[in-house]
Amino acid sequence: MTQVETPHARVPLAGPAVRTDVPGPSSRRYLERQEAYESNARSYPRRLPIAIERAAGPFVRDVDGNVYIDFLTGAGVLALGHNHPEVVDAVRRQLELYCHGLDFPTPIKDEFVSVQLGLLPPEMHGRTRIQLCGAAGENAIDAALKLCKTATGRGDVVTFHGGFHGSTHSTMALSGLLAQKEPVANLVPGVHFFPYPYSYRCPLGLTPDTCAAGCLAYLERVLTDPNGGVPRPAAVLVEPVQGEGGVIPAPPEFLQGLRRLTLELDVPLVVDEVQSGCGRTGRWFAFEHAGIVPDVVVASKALGGIGMPIAAIFYDERLDVWEPGAHTGTFRGNQLAFAAGAAAARIIVRDGILDHVRELGAYTLERLAPLPERHPFVGDVRGLGLMLGIELVDVETGAFDGRRAATVQRLALERGLIVELGGRDDCVVRLMPPLNVSRAVLDDGLTILEEALDLAA
Fold this sequence. Notes:
By secondary structure, the protein is an alpha/beta fold. It has helices at about 25-35, 45, 75, 85-95, 105-120, 135-150, 170-175, 180, 210-225, 250-265, 335-350, 355-370, 370-375, 400-415, 440-455; strands at about 50-55, 60, 65-70, 130, 155-160, 190-195, 235-240, 240, 250, 270, 295-300, 310-315, 380-385, 385-390, 415-420, 420, 430.
């Protein structure tokens, strides 16, 4: 296999600056090779057709020398952007010491665990255990449900419409997305889906101000009805902010009511913070906005600092009844991920980045708020912290407009901005900039996005 040339390797990294068609000629050659050798399951390069050469901070440079502002950040993995120098140094130091340790205790693992436990709400201090899992969030979802089933002796799980918890055989069963499930028969049984408070399009047909209460009341009626058809579950699994489902924050009152109900029924509440955790919403975990204390917290993505693969569950010690070896994984002792995760967490605390996220998140929502008046095809602007979404709709029918969203994504890329899509029919343009993004870079990205929306009108 021959190496594709990268002729602009010495160009300073600053952006945005797109000088070629997208994809450029060198990116196109890499994409053609990818198509020839890689699985048909590949996804991101189909809509973002670039081959990446280098990245730093909020910028990505492709092999043609084009520079983009990155508001995708590895699907939320890169909390501090690409290659934060302090985190890179921490990984480099650990690389010279020890890289892999299964679940043996090590100094850097002890430091990572101590830092992470210290960032939990005070009510969880002294009563929380951690299980380091495989290298992805879906493995931690598996671990969380195995834990709850073991602790309760029950087998059913309640989850919600629009949720996304992974692409493995078991986590597909827990997710709402039908397209992934349809080709795969006999998924994990005992999963029950309930309405999630998607206030803009309430699944119960209620108004935005009554949707959350209605969804909660329906769940409570079914779970307490002796003829309701759903056995008392081993767990209730919920995303405080549905990410892939379209950036839909659960109203605080819904999460508070869900916590009350699960306590009354003695059902463990599992919150999936794989994408919303580690500062993305302006709190270390999104459930903190509602002031609740869940039984299990699932974390991954940004937990590894600069993209180092790691996943974990944090859970109440009363659930810790499983036997040694009940959940294993070769890469649960990734010392480089521990070093990166500990360093990134310390930087986020030291630099007041959570306050920064809340401030810029509020600013962004305020700036984008006029979009529905400016463009009738913008149905809703929403989000929490720097986890934001713009839902595009068909002007005549109000249906999901994934085609226009794909056009906006492509127009933004051609002007130097990388954004993600999500939601039903991928009609939501999603923004996940680095948590430490500057106001200037954020403004540049938002200006490009507004230009793309203007052109897509």
